[in-house]
């Protein structure tokens, strides 16, 4: 089932990215007074762009089956896997950390706002998370940079390491990196609190109205037990699905976010590859994304079964 | 809720203090360190320190013939040398070549190479390296965009270990400067596939700086070459830091994260006035090697009539564009050269803003507003056209908007269309499906303009995309590139500029100023027609002002 799906995904992606006007060779030679059209013809031959599209696709597919992602069309001509490999760790680190923080913050606040629905707390939290949702990333980032970076001088403004990173001890390296990650993580997290906390809140509201909660209360259980044990477990079930769906997202980065903090991650790589029509890199990232999506779905299905005995029976 | 926020805030504050303190301590120690050495005479050139330059883009390939982006070239210019180069006044001088002879007929150039040059790995540099570089350039397997000049070479020969000779079929004036390309180490590359060479990520050259490390998307670090044949550079380390967002870069500059960046006109004029920046930084200003123009598609019926092109030129107030778009930091372009070049002619027809004259010319050409809707017509057709420009260049967009308003005043309706770069080239420029476009050209230091203006260069992939064809210009272009005498070439280029000003295939708009800002501890920077980096190896920081002092050397 997975293989036809993968071939379908790659075929469609391959056609779509080749449909976009412009070729990698145009960008390297056009508007360069010293580039002759002969040079351009040579470049096209080197990259195999002179062959018909289906031949190009089959060539690509043949290589990918052997796990050879090819070499980038950009002037560096590096292996696609190398280019992805050097950028993936930081993107995954940031994404996992921010996902973790988002879960840690939004589930409790979602549950609490459900428990105290329409209270002052609920209203303030609603305002807070929606403000985070609405504030443009780059604007918030710039304000933080000006305040913590320039005026106060407490935090580094951009990048991942200090200039003297190499000379630091392991512990210092860890703190150096942590210091660089505070602002990016705050910005990444703040904007994403809204959806999950709202999700947790509405699920909780639904569960609280169920008969078994009334039963639990009438048994005389303490409120903490009712909410914490009986309601929470049921309310969190759908959250597991969300977790599964966020797996493919782990390798994707936001271009705006990475650009403003000068973090060399996957978002930038993908964006630059699209702009330069660097087909092998684009395809490489899409294939990895597709595989991760499928794995994510699988994980979601399995963990659902683990968490909910009712599903296992069916 | 309040409790929660307070806890969160508390955690953030604790973290900040923890990290903030460690940083402050380091700073204090650094200051103490500096205090010790302050007794050394202040202001004297001294070795040491690091300069950190901010760049929007990362390099792509550090073999300069394969990459064509400016970031890569900025690095490779420090790592490699050519046989010759332009000096600060844009006169050719020798680098790896001590001297050269040009034969009477102008067909043969003999380079006498320096004998005291070594590659960064210690191997001596010889004429074989030059030969190897030449062969690489003409090899069809090398994906280079710069082979054009070298395909004109008829014969290249290694005369002896330190003499290299090239012969051309026809005299070719830009030949000499074409040998300013970086010379590659033959002992590391010969017989290998250059596209897969490790030199692309860790170059080895003969230049003033040695490659140290490259962290993709983060930084490239170079170290001074202590045995550089023109003398050891004063600054020990050069860091090229990649910060893709210009607003972030500016904040980094203010916070001390970088020492050197190019400012936008707005930043130069309005945002760098406070006393702290004035004290810590020096701003420089020189004419950049580029101009912006409005080009007409000369295949379009509307623009065939010269009077129309002139009228549009009279309608555009160039100074207004400079004030509005560049905040006054630029000069009016009246041809394809900048005023401080020898090929620049001042005596060409100029088109100061004059809407009356524009209206007259349009009327003469038969465009009149009969239905009084504010738009001119001729033969039942309204005078409307679209100005095309590429996405991502805010200055071009603003320029188009100001032009749009001015043209509306005389009854020409203009639409603006902004297209992403790759699509822009493929769909509009190659196919010549445009009416007018706003673009810019780099101004090459050698004034040869053959590729942009010759009538044979109007093909779909070529640079004369407006299809300008003028027999006299063709003749002059060829004459000028086949003559070595600068005086003679000057006459030809003067005539070309006169014809271009007369014919107005482009409305030449402006030459922006380059606006670097550099930390004031760096001394010895002297702006010249060539810019500021020509004497980079002579920049220095007096010992007492050095910021990055390395402990172990």
From TrEMBL, chain B:
The keyword Transport applies. GO terms for biological process: peptide transport. It holds the Pfam family SBP_bac_5. Residues 92-453 form the Solute-binding protein family domain. GO terms for cellular component: ATP-binding cassette (ABC) transporter complex; periplasmic space. It comes from the Bacteria. Transmembrane segments: none annotated. Keywords: Signal, Transport. The keyword Cell inner membrane does not apply. GO terms for molecular function: peptide transmembrane transporter activity. Belongs to the bacterial solute-binding protein 5 family. This is Peptide-binding protein. It comes from Candidatus Schekmanbacteria bacterium RIFCSPLOWO2_12_FULL_38_15.
